[in-house]
Amino acid sequence: MAAFSRGRTVVNSLRVFWVLVILWYEVWTWDASVRSCKWPDSALLADNLGVEASHSKPTHVLLVADPQIIDRHSYPSRGLVLSYITQFLVDLNLRKNWRTALYKKPDVVVFLGDMMDSGRFVMTDEEYSEYFSRFNKIFTLNVDIPVYFIPGNHDVGLGAKITQFSDVARARYIEHFGQPNQEISVANHTLVLFDAPSYADEDSQRHGQKKSFERWDPVPYGALDFMKKFPSRPHPDPVILLSHIPLFRSDGRSCGPLREKGTIRPGVGLGYQNTLEKQSSLRLLEFLTPTVVYSGDDHDYCEYTHVYQHGGVEKMVREVTVKSLSMVMNVRRPGFQLLSLMPTNIRASDKPTYADAPCLLPDQLGIYLVVYIPLLAISLVIVLASNMGQQAPRRYRQSFSNDDVEAEGRRDTYPPTSSGQGPSPGWFVIQDHRRQQNTSISNNWPGKLKDLLGLLYSGNSRFASYRRTWPGIVIADVRDIAIFPLLTFVLTTWWVTSH
């Protein structure tokens, strides 16, 4: 009885432990990250006089960069099963991250490009529509909240065309996400949604044809055309530039303490460009004269101050590169950016009109690799140690069905040995033709599945005898422990994906 009590204590303790672990790392950790991240309203309210007496409040803009939902093109070397598991886990993480971001109740949402990892690849219209539908199912949003997008290189392509890149990628993007270049007014600020990939492509074409910027005829309605026409329109409100590709920097300056590793350096490769070219960046700043710049593409966080000339006067502008929202973009802690904008009616003169704050999310990959896997190994060691030396614990003897007890009491009905003395070695089933049929190993797949389930949950004598062995005892303990945390994981997953 002591062995029985000790064994049940271990099983029940590990059950409770694992349920709490799953709840903490799949639900409560995300909620904790929300509570530690706040809209930067206080910084604006402190700098603007008389705001406390106003009933108005800053407008909240949620900036999301590089969710890059994956598909079959993302990891072509992985098999079908592994690709499906990867996609399921990444989609689940994006849903949790998105749900966490929406807890902040934004007034406006802007995606800074690379919505879909393979949007630029060749695929049928039906496949692209399904891909886009999956994006919408992950990033559900109240219809009352405006949402805007700018294109990234994974959405529309960039640089030299290869056979895998679709010629209609840009047209598909416009059809599903909207115009790539536009300006919108939010809380008396002008948000410029800029198509950086096409701007980089067109500037590269101009260089290739050795034409000066002044002699170049921009592509109608393209990014360069949009930029050149921008100053001709009145813009009395502060301008905020939103670009997928970061602006040029060459000094290797640190990106700040929130950067995980390295810095942003210029570089070009197949389908990507780390920063816009130097002159392209300076012209963009001169034509738009933004108050602040927000970019994506790099996946990691970075703050950088650019210096440029405008009308013979030196100006400085701060650029924030927003973290990717995804767990598979080479950053351990994904994130998003909170941007607060002061409307005119509560804005004091010569005071800041905006403030932003980064929000860091839990390290999902670290949870899998550093928490779950080691704890699983430790749990298995505990189960093995608790059952060491036990051959037939009472808790399993007492769990046998009446048929098993009856079988134990009817040894005389077993087939005799060749000498006619006693039961044959190896016989553990009663002499009942119907029971022998039910407990025999089936040769078809449904039968094999039934036998496997019987191994875990059987009350019949064939598998009951296996459970009396040391491996059977360990397997049964693992089963009894795992069912509750697995059920908890399934329920939390359902809750996350349905909210």
Automatic annotation (TrEMBL):
One of its GO terms (molecular function) is hydrolase activity. Residues 415-426 have a biased composition (Low complexity). Residues 98-301 form the Calcineurin-like phosphoesterase domain. It is a multi-pass membrane protein. Residues 395-427 are annotated as: Disordered. The keyword Nucleus does not apply. The chain crosses the membrane at residues 365-385, 472-496. It comes from the Eukaryota. The keyword Transmembrane applies. It is found in: Membrane. This is Calcineurin-like phosphoesterase domain-containing protein. The lineage of its organism: Eukaryota, Fungi, Dikarya, Basidiomycota, Agaricomycotina.
